[in-house]
Design goal:
Number of strands: 44
Shape: flat
Number of domains: 5
Oligomer: single chain
Radius of gyration: 43 Å
Helix content: under 10%
Distance between the termini: 106 Å
Bound molecules: 2-acetamido-2-deoxy-beta-D-glucopyranose
CATH superfamily of the largest domain: Immunoglobulins
CATH class of the largest domain: Mainly Beta
Largest sheet: 5 strands, antiparallel
Structural class: mainly beta
Length: 500
């Protein structure tokens, strides 16, 4: 009984094995190159089918680009504009009295005709804490199983939708996003993006199409009016205008301000406007009477003024600086506002070396001083220091931020002579030059001493063909100090004899 069971099992296994190998693609001696294709709708495609075995004929079967049976061993399926969504090309070969076939997997993709974003069943501003639905419509895209819809708020990815349909032809798809905005979302920009993830063989980067940005307005502080813009940054003496509007029925609204008042009116959009704003402390507010109460929203106003002058100087010092002493530079910024948005940048040449910010909250123009301590060294001789006043007024402010540079302050540094090596050995030959020249500020004077010299020589270079071997000492001197250098003069013969 047991034997019988195993025998049956054995027979079954062998017959399965036979039927599998008989139809397995590896057993059909043709090679596709490439083995699969991912092609844009309407794009061109070509795939080779080749064999290395003797055969009685091979060909391509397809609804477009078919290749009739031939004795060649390499045949190409080629379509210049592929527009058949369901195409299933196959390469067949007749050999060994049989025919076998290999199918080419084809993925045809199409980027969307449009991607659009909208709010579902709602218009106008949203109320803080309520729920709303956004919708992203993607038109005419394929294949949908490789489509991802990404939702963004500003630059942040907030949600993703994928689709599982296996349909290959283009479809319209909708993705929805529920939001519950709060006051921080006022002015937020939502948008969506359709992305076709077609794998490694697909186009890189994956094709994407984005919707427009949908900017949402959120009402909060129980006053249902909207200021546009919500805050302003104005140059002193410049023009300004801000709208206040509402969607709710009301009994009257107006602007209160020390300049540019708008008396109460039944209109639903009123504008505060000043052509030359010169009131530092101005605090305009929009008010509205509705539902038996009155409410008010105040407009934040920043008035700025670029400095009358920016100047640089050295504190309590004139003339050249001494190496490694400490000095103080000063940058004076006159008549600038608002000082809490002022930065003073210190530069040495093109390099930013220090920054000062100010924390005063005063809104009217002030004079400000920034100081910089420096301890110059010889490399700083000739350095150019300067400072710059910059008003960083945020996104609503002028771009680029207004800046005012000082003139440059050229620093002169006095430093003593210092030779890079204190001795030098020189072998006597025809053109003999002992060069004691060294950098120093002020320029040094030189003197030479040697038992072979009868008089003191004051040049930095000693040049002679009559010097005899021995020791020559040069002293370089300036107001900052002294540095000596010893030249050891040897005859060329001495070189080879003096082995120790
Ligand atoms: C197909 O074969 C032709 C002729 O040998 C060759 O020029 C072409 O590069 C081949 N294409 C691919 C994708 O291998
Ligand atoms: C997709 O939507 C567009 C516009 O509404 C329509 O013209 C088209 O027929 C739709 N396509 C499909 C496949 O439903
Ligand atoms: C398309 O998506 C399906 C399902 O996620 C995946 O199996 C397939 O590899 C994708 N196609 C390509 C060409 O990447
Ligand atoms: C007006 O007051 C009523 C009753 O208090 C309230 O239901 C309604 O929402 C209010 N309208 C507005 C626009 O706030
Ligand atoms: C700033 O300095 C200038 C020149 O020293 C002076 O005329 C002006 O009154 C000063 N302004 C303030 C606000 O102190
Ligand atoms: C000015 O500076 C303050 C303090 O750094 C900052 O809070 C404010 O946003 C700045 N104003 C503008 C208009 O950027
Ligand atoms: C001496 O050395 C200085 C600095 O290295 C150099 O500029 C100058 O040309 C030299 N003079 C001679 C005569 O070699």
């Amino acid at each position: 009984m047991l034997q019988h069971f195993f025998g049956l099992f054995y027979l079954l296994a062998v017959s399965q094995l036979l039927s599998f190998t008989g139809s397995h693609a590896d057993e059909c001696p043709v090679q596709l190159n490439p083995q699969r294709v991912i092609v844009k709708y309407g794009g061109s495609v070509s795939v080779n089918c080749s064999t290395s075995v003797p055969h009685k004929g091979m060909g391509w079967e397809a609804s477009e680009g078919s290749v009739p049976m031939t004795r060649d061993s390499l045949i190409t399926w080629r379509v210049s504009e592929l527009r058949e969504w369901g195409i299933q090309p196959s390469c067949f070969i007749n050999y060994n009295k049989e025919q076998c076939t290999v199918y080419l997997p084809v993925t045809i993709y199409k980027t969307p005709d449009s991607v659009s974003i909208s709010t579902v069943n709602h218009n106008g501003p949203m109320m803080e804490g309520n729920q709303y639905e956004l919708q992203c419509d993607v038109l005419n895209v394929a294949p949908v199983q490789n489509l991802t819809v990404n939702w963004y708020k500003g630059q942040t990815l907030v949600d993703q939708t994928i689709f599982t349909d296996t349909i290959k032809t283009p479809v319209n798809k909708t993705s929805k996003l529920l939001i519950r905005p709060d006051r921080a979302d006022d002015g937020a920009q939502y948008w969506c993006e359709a992305k076709l993830e077609l794998g490694e063989e697909g186009p890189r980067p994956p094709p994407t199409a984005s919707s427009e940005h949908l900017s949402i307005t959120v009402y909060y502080s129980d006053c249902p009016v909207q200021l546009n813009p919500q805050s302003v940054v104005v140059k002193f003496g410049g023009p300004v205008s801000v709208d206040c509007s509402t969607y709710v029925p009301h009994k009257g609204m107006g602007w209160e301000a020390s300049e540019g008042v708008v008396p109460m009116t039944r209109d639903s959009l009123i504008t505060w406007r000043v052509s030359e704003l010169r009131e530092w402390g101005i605090e305009p507010s929009c008010f509205m009477s509705y539902n038996k109460t009155q409410c008010t929203v105040t407009l934040p106003v920043t008035i700025y003024k670029t400095p009358d002058s920016v100047s640089i100087s050295t504190v309590n010092h004139n003339g050249p600086m001494m190496e490694r002493n400490q000095y103080e530079l000063q940058c004076d910024v006159l008549n600038v506002a608002p000082v809490q948005n002022l930065t003073v940048n210190w530069y040495k040449g093109q390099t930013l070396v220090d920054q000062t910010i100010f924390t005063d909250t005063i809104k009217t123009p002030v004079n400000k001083t920034s100081k910089l301590l420096i301890r110059p060294d010889r490399a700083d001789d000739g350095a150019q220091y300067w400072c710059e006043a910059k008003l960083e007024l945020g996104e609503e402010g002028p771009r680029p931020p207004p800046t005012a540079p000082s003139k440059t302050l050229n620093v002169e540094v006095y430093y003593k002579p210092k030779h890079s090596s204190s001795t030098e050995t020189i072998y006597i030959n025809e053109e003999l030059t002992l060069n004691c020249t060294v950098k120093a500020n002020p320029a040094p004077t030189y003197s030479w001493h040697s038992e072979h010299l009868k008089e003191t020589i004051s040049s930095s270079v000693l040049r002679s063909s009559t010097l005899s071997s021995g020791i020559y000492t040069c002293i370089a001197t300036n107001s900052q100090g002294t540095d000596g250098k010893v030249f050891i003069l040897k005859s060329t013969g001495a070189q080879s004899f003096c082995s120790n």
